[in-house]
Each structure stands twice: as C-alpha cells, then as structure tokens.
Write a structure and sequence with these properties.
Blueprint (H helix, E strand, L loop, with lengths): L2 E4 L6 E4 L18 E3 L1 H8 L7 E6 L2 E6 L4 E6 L4 H11 L2 E4 L3 E4 L3 E3 L4 E3 L7 E4 L7 E5 L7 E8 L6 E6 L5 E8 L3 E6 L5 E7 L2 E3 L3 E6 L6 E7 L2 E5 L2 E6 L2 E6 L2 E4 L5 E6 L3 E5 L2 E3 L3 E5 L4 E5 L2 E2 L9 E5 L6 H9 L7 E5 L3 E5 L6 E5 L6 E7 L11 E9 L5 E8 L7 E8 L5 E8 L2 E10 L5 E9 L2 E6 L2 E6 L10 E8 L5 E12 L5
Length: 519
C-alpha cells in the first residue's frame, strides 16, 4: 500500500491499495468522500502517542503547550500568556488537553472546525477572566464550525459581566460537563449566520449567573434541534433557561432556578418551541413563563413554588388519567387552581372530583335551565395558540329531551369560537362534532349512535385548517372549515333539559393538554 486518502473535515487518514482511488472511500465519522493524502499526512495521523494532539500546562512561572511527542508548540509567562499559549495549541493541534490548573485569560479562546478542548474536570481546570479582559466571552465556538467539542472544565467571570461560553452557528457539536460561574450568561447558544443545530449539551452547570443558558435566534440562521440533558442552572439572578426564538429545544431532567422577582426559572418567548421533561424548578418567581404565540410542553413537572404565568400554550402531561389529580397535588403546588371546576345553572350540582376522577353534572327534576361545568383558571385561559387536545370519558344517563355539549370554546353555546361534541335529541340520535368561527359553523355527523354507555371522546385541534373528532380511538369527524384560532378557550361540560325530568351527565375523567408544534 503506497497510496493514502483523507477526510478534509475531520482529518481521518488511511492507506489504500494501489489499484484504488481515494474517492472510492468515505469517512466513517461523517460520511464525506475521501480525497488524496500524502505519506507525511498519514504518518502524522498515526504517530500520536497520547489521546490528544497537544497539552497545555503550567510549571512554575511558565505556561507551556506541547504536542503528544513532547515537542514545544508555544510557551509564555503564566498568568500573562495563558490565552495565547492555549490558542496556539488549538491552532496547531485539534485535540487539546488542559491540565489541572487555573488559567487567566486576557482574551477569549476560539474553537473551530473539528477542534476539541478538554480539561481535567469541573473545578480542576478553571478558565477565568484576567484584569483587562475586553472580549465578550471566555470561550467562543466559531460561526458555522462543525464537530467542535468543549468539556470537563470551569469558566469563571466573577462579576456577571460577560458570557461564559458562546456558540454561534455550530453544527453537530458536543459541550459536556462545563461549569460556568458568575457570568452574565453562562452559555449562549445562538443561530449565527448559518444554522446552529444538532447539539448535545450534557451535564452543564451554571451557578450564580444572571442567566444560566440562553438559546436564541440572533442572526440570519436558526437555532434548533438541541438536547440539554441533566444540566443544572441554580441561583441564577434572572432566568435559569431562556428560549428566545429557538426551535425544538429538548430539556431532559436537571434544574433551573431563577431568584429575582418579576423573572422566571424558565422563559419561552418569540415563538420558541421547547419540551421540558422532569425539570426541577424553584425560586422566588414563577417556574415557567411562556409568552403568547410560543410553544412549550411541560412533561412530568417538578415545581417547588409559584404558578405558570403569561401562558402561550402549555402541556402538562398526566402519567395516567386516574393519577392526574395526584400529579397536580404532588408536583404543581400553586398551579392547582388551573384545574378547579365550577358548575352554574339553577338547580344544577356537581358531584365528585370531576377533574381527573369521576364526576357528575345533575339537573334536578323540573329544571330546564342550562347547566355548565367549566374548568376555571385564576388568571386567563391557556387555549389561545398551539395545538390543544381535549379528551374525556363520559356517558349520558338519559337520552330523551336532552342537549349535551362538551369540548372547548369561549362559552359552551358560543358561535364565535368553539370545538365540541354535541348530542341533541331533537336533532339527531348520533354524536355530532361542531366547529365554529365568527358566527359560521361546520357540523359533522359521526355516525356513532348515542347510548347510555361510556365512550372515550377526543377533540384534536390539528392545525388552523384541520380538526379531528375521535370516539373510542377512531377518527369519526374531520373538519377543515370554520376553525377558530387565537382565542382564549375554556374546557366545559354542558347539559340542558328540554322536558321536566332529571338529567345526568357522567364524566369518568378529563384531560386537557397541548402538543407543541415540532418539525
């Protein structure tokens, strides 16, 4: 074998047979077609003895960068030249290890294409701002850099003035086990001029920053499709996590805690889209602030204090229908008023828990008034944007002389905005699905006959141009006209007598939730 092939992206180099061309091979790391390489490039790729291409360390009053063979790359005065020596090591090598030391940075460190910077561990390797530091961040991942890596170190500002780590337009990168302390923003993940996507952010820690981590579309490119896993941002002066215009941010476990009145532990704004699963939040402010028009799913929340405010669209997913009330009690705390019920109508009563457990709306004999059970909020209704879904298990006790409505709308009988199931004995013996917008309506006969047995009902606001009605898991109605959007809706149950006899509507369980709009 006297021919060689390389990947121009990650510098993977192999020897190939004489009768083969480099273009016959692809890189196992990224799938790129290989190009011709020289023998010296092949030798360079194989002679590294350590798991790094360069190491930076301090010895007495000096700071040194050496390659894995012990050849000096750069050296300088410790505390004065730390940043330049580290940068020289990165520029020459592509996998740099920082020793167990405190490095005082006079300017930021820049990480580029396929470049790795690894410390000896959080709290062991510390990069901190030196006197006269004039840059806006301690570490910057260059715009549009592919495959960068930063891990196992601590960043320290000291007076909350600059950013710990800034990434603009990175693609397929990994940042893990980095601790950012006393910064203005611990981690800033932005769109840059290209796209910032497919990042794995694992085990990050932010302590006493103004903002723990911020995802933002601040350039021409989008910031999207990132996984933030098992990361903890606590004692943040303002916000633990901000998602500002970014898309498809998935937060899995960890903690976010803001401690300033008027802020929140988590803030989703400017049509940001995010999923939060099993995230612990605490602090003086509310845990989640979701601006109107933005989308967030809060799954298995673990909230110590406060309530959700400024709701755009939020999903609190139950573990199981029968455990919904317990979930609220155990984790939500002051959020519980969102799921209380009230019953209106002369002679009408509600029996049982009704939400999350079995309940009944009863109209007394001789009463022909409207009876409505509404699920009330202490502030405003959350059904104004997003993709709401209403599910319940219910049955009608009496079939004759009865009108039953349940779903979500401005009021049960409103024609301005409504999506509901309807049984009206004087009109049809089947379940009907109605959708109303601005005094115009569309009705679909489901073909499912009403009887006195329990059914599972679901209404899915699929988009601004399509809604579905399902009974026992089957789609029985699809509506594409007269669909209301951008309104504050209330989930409700309604029953009306059209003759003087007792009527009952049984409700075994109810779910009301949102599914975020994801690509």
């Amino acid at each position: 074998m006297t021919k060689y092939a390389k990947c121009s992206e990650c510098r993977y180099v192999i020897a190939i047979p004489n009768d083969k061309n480099s273009s016959d091979y692809v890189c196992p790391n990224d799938g790129n077609t290989l190009t011709d390489a020289t023998e010296s490039e092949y030798d360079e790729s194989t002679h590294i003895k350590g798991p790094y291409s360069a190491i930076v360390y301090k010895d007495g009053d000096g700071v040194y960068a050496e390659d894995a063979n012990g050849t000096t790359i750069a050296e300088g005065e410790a505390g004065e030249d730390d940043a330049s020596v580290i940068q020289s090591a990165i520029n020459v090598g592509h996998k740099v290890f920082l020793s167990d030391d405190i490095f005082n940075l006079s300017n930021k460190i820049r990480i580029g294409e396929s470049e790795n910077l690894m410390g000896a561990g959080m709290g062991a390797t510390v990069l901190q701002k030196a006197n006269g530091f004039a840059d806006g961040c301690l570490i910057e991942i260059k715009d549009s850099a592919h495959y960068p890596y930063v891990g196992h170190l601590t960043l320290n500002d000291g007076n909350r003035a600059i950013i710990g780590l800034k990434s603009s337009g990175m693609i397929w990168n990994r940042i893990e086990y980095v601790d950012s302390r006393s910064c203005d923003v611990g981690f800033l993940i932005s769109g840059g001029t290209n796209l910032n996507y497919h990042a794995s952010l694992i085990g990050l820690v932010g302590y006493e920053n103004n903002i723990g981590i911020k995802f933002i579309k601040d350039g021409t490119g989008y910031c999207s499709s990132h996984d933030l896993v098992a990361s903890h941002f606590y004692k943040c002066n303002q916000y633990g996590i901000i998602i500002d215009g970014a898309q498809d941010i998935r937060v899995l476990g960890g903690e976010a805690s803001g401690y300033n009145t008027g802020t929140a532990s988590v803030w989703v704004t400017n049509s940001g889209r995010a999923i939060f699963r099993s995230l612990y939040t605490e602090g003086l402010p509310v845990p989640y602030k979701v601006d109107a028009g933005s989308f967030a799913a809060i799954i298995h929340p673990q909230i110590k204090t406060g309530q959700i405010i400024g709701i755009g669209s939020v999903n609190i997913e139950p573990l199981y229908s029968r455990q919904y009330a317990e979930l609220i009690d155990d984790f939500i705390g002051d959020l519980k008023p969102y799921w209380s019920t009230s019953v209106s109508g002369s002679g009408s009563v509600s029996e049982g828990q009704f939400f999350g457990r079995a309940g009944i709306i009863v109209l007394d004999t001789g009463d022909t008034s409207d009876s409505v059970a509404s699920i009330k909020s202490p502030t405003k209704w959350i059904f104004n944007t997003g993709v709401p879904t209403f599910s319940c298990k219910a049955r009608v006790k009496h079939l004759g002389d009865t009108k039953v409505l349940f779903g979500m709308g401005t009021t049960p009988t409103s024609t301005l905005g409504n999506l509901r199931f309807r049984y009206e004995s004087s009109v049809s013996s089947n379940w009907l699905v109605d959708s109303y917008k601005d005094d115009s309506g569309t009705t679909v006969d489901t073909g499912v006959a009403v009887d006195t047995e329990f059914y599972n009902f679901k209404l899915v606001y699929q988009s601004s141009s399509k809604v579905w009605g399902l009974i026992n898991g089957n789609v029985v109605a699809e509506i594409t006209t007269n669909i209301a959007t951008g309104q504050d809706w209330t989930p409700y149950f309604y029953i009306k007598n059209t003759a003087a006899a007792e009527k009952k509507l049984y409700v075994d369980w109810v779910h009301v939730y949102f599914i975020p709009l994801l690509r």
